[in-house]
Amino acid sequence: MPLLSVNNIEVIYDDVILVLKGLSLEVEEGQIVSVLGANGAGKTTTLKAISGLLKTEEGEVTDGSIIFDGDKINGLEAEDIVKKGIFQVMEGRRVFEDLTVRENLVAAAHTQKCSRSELDDRIDHVYSYFPRLKEREAGLAGYLSGGEQQMLVIGRGMMAKPKLMMLDEPSLGLSPLLVGEIFEIIVKLNKELGTTILLVEQNARMALNIADHGYIMENGKIVLDDTTEKLKNNEDVKQFYLGMT
Ligand code: ATP
Questions:
Q1: SS (H, E, C) 86-109
Q2: Mutational test site, ligand 1, from 19, 34, 56, 216, max ligand atoms within 8 Å of CB
Q3: Binning pLDDT at 50, 70 and 90, where does residue 74 land?
Q4: Mean pLDDT, to the nearest integer, of 5-11?
Q5: Which of 195, 178, 173 is nearest to 186 (CA)?
Q6: A GO term (biological process) for this protein (predicted)?
Q7: Centre of ligand 1 from the C-alpha of residue 7, in Å
Q8: Which one-letter DSSP state was computed for residue 140?
Q9: Looking at the whole model, is its pTM more than 0.80?
Q10: Residue 198 to residues 47, 96, 117, 175, 233: CA-CA distances in angstroms?
């Protein structure tokens, strides 16, 4: 049984706008799975449907089901979905700008009953992945560079110790060097910690290089899915996503 299975879901915003039109995908435990697609295809909506965050935007899953770790999760509150082990790293590096780096990390563990020493261990673990965050731990998160803020949001995700981490466009707006660094960290999280990853990316080349399996999304539906090895050799993927003719 896959860790996550999204079965034929339909999502409607504001009671009228149909955005996901029978979307299905599966994520096996231990895999990195990537969802690619043009702007507006519905990638972010898919992640929000899974994490329960649609509700905050007047969106609703009106058909289909989402099963995680054997349980149906569509309909649950976002906070309960986090407790079940899913964490969504949202697009746009959302940190608490007026809190310090360390306070941002502490706040991310709030859904879990975590002893003081466990909390310190988790923070040290995040710092072992991101030494730059340790150097700036007492500074306000709002003063971090874009790349450092992206590290902090991933660090916040690590604090929740999720079984499934979902990342929405982690490379957005970062220099090529930092993109490489962030992708290395994603692979490390997967290989060292065993965190299953669901990744939404515009940077198709990077995403296909690190993922095991890929889904191509168009207009609210999956139109193609395969192992990334096969997708990299697919003529349409080469032309439309990898810019090769
Ligand atoms: P991008 O790559 O540009 O982030 P995406 O594939 O992630 O795009 P979504 O953000 O999921 O796409 O948006 C899919 C469609 O749903 C778009 O047409 C968008 O305008 C619409 N949409 C998204 N959020 C809302 C909302 N809160 N209310 C109404 N419509 C929305």
A1: EEEECCCCCCCCCCEHHHHHHHHC
A2: 19
A3: very high
A4: 97
A5: 195
A6: L-amino acid transport
A7: 20
A8: B
A9: yes
A10: 9, 24, 30, 22, 22
